[in-house]
Amino acid sequence: MQEKENRIVVEHVYKTFNVYLDKANSIKEKLLFWKRNRKETREVLKDINLTIKNGEAVALIGVNGSGKSTLLKLMTKIIYPNKGKITTNGKLTSLLELGAGFHPDFSGRENIYFNASIFGLTKKEIDKRLDKIIEFSELGAYIDNPVRTYSSGMYMRLAFSVAINVDAEILLVDEILSVGDQHFQEKCINKMKELKKEGKTMVFVTHSLQSARELCDRAVWLNKGVIQMDGKTDEVIDEYIKQTT
Amino acid sequence: MSIFKRLYQYRELLKTSIKKDIGGKYKNSFLGVIWSFINPLLQITVYAIVFPLIMRNNIENYTVFMVCGLIPWTFFSSVVNRTSFVMVENGNIIKKVYFPREILPISLVTSEAITFIISTIIIIGFVLAFGVGITWLIVFYPLLLLAEYVLLIGISLIVSSVTVYFRDLQHFIGVFLQLLFYGTPIVYSLDFIPEHLRWIFKLNPMTYIIQGFRDIFYYHQVPQVKEILMVIVVGIILTIVGYGIFNKLQKRFAEEL
């Protein structure tokens, strides 16, 4: 078989966070209390190596605080590693938190433009996708109402519809499918299966082992900032359940 | 990836944030865009009454003289002021989505530049009302606008990124701007300053810009093009240095906000 293209390469990545116990975020305090700037460094990720190839769907699993979300944020370039290198290849969309960047006073339609432009789309590209996005969100006539009048389910539907229709080669998703009703959840999972078939690369952070099994062919188990296991979804999840329960 | 390529790719975001900034400012206010005229007009009225009272001067058409300096100054000071808040205000998006962070200061400067172009109507209104008139010299307007724009891009890259780490810089900037208002020949002429002190004022790039606007609207003389080109060079240097600083600091924005 032909060697597949690498989409995400994580090499020897370390990430530490500074935890300020009392945050001296001003010149005054830095001058007055320069000795007293108590901070702790917390190592969140230690020497992570990971290569994700084109067309793979990877689930990141692990208990709370194991560094899954941090790894995902590093991949999106919201934060940067202290040591090591992350290279991504291809257009990337992330769904870390739904509707980040929605403006409550603007209508759903205006927010589609704003949100999609944050993902780097041009007006023409958005125009082309607009109908598809509105249709997928099932918002119908509500699309012209201000977003602040939306229920959290509607909010989530709109955000998800935008992100999934950006046509990115890489989709990063943080635990979000828990919102929305059964019907929409199924719709999302089906849509993601479809994207997978089209050869998109996906990385999920999830606690729902069921949907991980359903969608992903590979799972990476993070434990206390290191990769505990990396392999076929079923094998990793079985081992994970054995050790954590 | 070069900054220009990235900005071009994200041009839609740049455009929508500029529109959001200009439109959003007046969206919920009764008088709407009229506010962008009322505010400076009130300020002009106050200064036109106060300064001739406390300062003896023989400047002809003092109000016009002052307006020509005040409007460009307002552009400068509102950018410098707002740019120190821009990252904190957008902290929510910065923490959750990736996009080129420099879009935020750049779109702020651009939207303020558009506001400035609109409020140039005020200068023209005063010039006509007081019978000073308009000449062909107005062709130098784009050059002066460019000089101030480039200068502000450089300053805003530095200020917006540094304030993320030092929040109280915002207060310093407020005081500094007030000081600079009196340190720039806006309500007075550079001729009032004793010869041996003038070099201090000549270190301030805003001095040249305001004198330039005054040359084309008030004195009707060709502005000192060489000096203005110098300001542009300074602005470009500031932008390059500022972009370096910005790029280094922006890596930890999401953690510091």
End-to-end distance of chain A, in Å? Answer: 39 Å
What helical percentage do the residues of chain B reach? over 70%
**Which structural class best describes the helix and strand composition of chain B?**
mainly alpha
CATH superfamily of the largest domain in chain A: P-loop containing nucleotide triphosphate hydrolases
User: Mean of residue pLDDT of chain B?
Assistant: 89
Largest sheet of chain B: none
Mean pLDDT of chain A: 82
Instruction: Give me the side-by-side strand order of the main sheet of chain A.
Output: 5-6-7-3-8-9
Number of helices of chain A: 8
Query: What's the number of domains of chain A?
Result: 2
Strand content of chain A: 25-35%
Are there runs of chain B of 5+ residues with pLDDT below 50, and where? Answer: none
* Estimated radius of gyration of chain B: 19 Å
Identify the most extensive interface between protein chains: A-B, 33 and 30 residues
Q: Would you count the extended β strands of chain A for me?
A: 9
The total beta strand count of chain B reads 0
Order of helices and strands of chain B: HHHHHHHHHHHHH
Model regions low in confidence, pLDDT < 50 over at least 5 residues of chain A: none
Work out the helix count of chain B: 13
CATH architecture of the largest domain in chain A: 3-Layer(aba) Sandwich
Shape of chain A: globular
